Amino acid sequence: MWAYEKKLEYPVKVSGPNPKLAKVVVTQYGGPDGELAASLRYLTQRYTMPTSQAKGVLTDIGTEELAHMEIVAALVYNLLKGAPLSEIKAAGMDGYYADHDRSVYFVNGDGVPWVAAYIQSKGDPIADLHDNMAAEEKARATYEHLINLSDDPQVTDVLRFLREREVVHFQRFGETLNIVQDFLDRRKVW
Amino acid sequence: MRTPINREELLLRIQALEFAALDLNLYLNTHPGDARALADFNQISAALAQTRKAYEQAFGPLMNYGHSLSCGRWAWIDEPWPWEV
User: B22 contacts in A (CB within 8 Å)?
Assistant: First the structure.
């Protein structure tokens, strides 16, 4: 069961309509290393985790990723809100506009829709936790690319918060991996 | 007497407290024996509950499904929604 909180995890503001920036930020909504993928990956892997601690980590991080999905949606929504068609065209978002107007949809920066094949649930906790650590690093790298592309300081501020959360999640998954490896008594030295 | 605080300021305070609680929650999942973190978590959670109550009394429910009261009238559907900034 989930309950909704009528607030964002982190405040979102944008300086004004900016379809060019919306076009790339949307990848963290529906792209391969975006927040939808992150949330669904963790929430679906938790059922086959062997320890209560690992089930807790996946439940809580999967839930925080839902909040991040909402933050990214708030960015995209506000960057498209009131954007003139001429700017949408100039940003190469006319294809997106044809199907979605100024709504928020699960695509990457090139308009490719989200697919479940982006995520994994192997049933092997060691494989899944390594997959999650890689996912956090890929999301961190994507946020760094978006920060490089951003020309709106208010958007950059939000992207920096989201980037930092990937670093914290990576740390927590690494600790979880150690705990699960101890539990399974097959700790490996790399 | 303290001057009444506006909605945005109170919301920011809730966001800060809840973020601290969330981060401690994640930390405690992998460090359940850390007594200092546990004490921090409980202290922050209590402050969060208090701040949340003050917000809800002035500006309406923060949560759905029975986690917040809606006294007098159904205020859950009042604007603004979180993405309307």
Answer: 9, 60, 64
**How many interface pairs between A and B have CB atoms less than 8 angstroms apart?**
73
How many angstroms separate the Cα of B69 from the Cα of each of A129, A173, B57, B66, B75?
A: 40, 37, 9, 7, 9
Is A121 an 8 Å CB contact of chain B? no
Helices assigned H by DSSP within chain B: 7-30, 35-59
Interface confidence, given as ipTM, is: 0.94
A83-119 pLDDT, tens digit each: 999 999 999 999 999 999 999 999 999 999 999 999 9
Chain B CB contacts of A6 under 8 Å are 61-64, 76, 81-82
CA neighbor of A57 nearest in space, from B32, B26, B38, B21: B26
A78 part of contact set with chain B, CB < 8 Å: yes
Evaluate whether A146 touches A25 at the Cβ level (below 8 Å): yes
Domains of chain A: 21-184 (1.20.1260.10)
pLDDT value, residue B58: 93
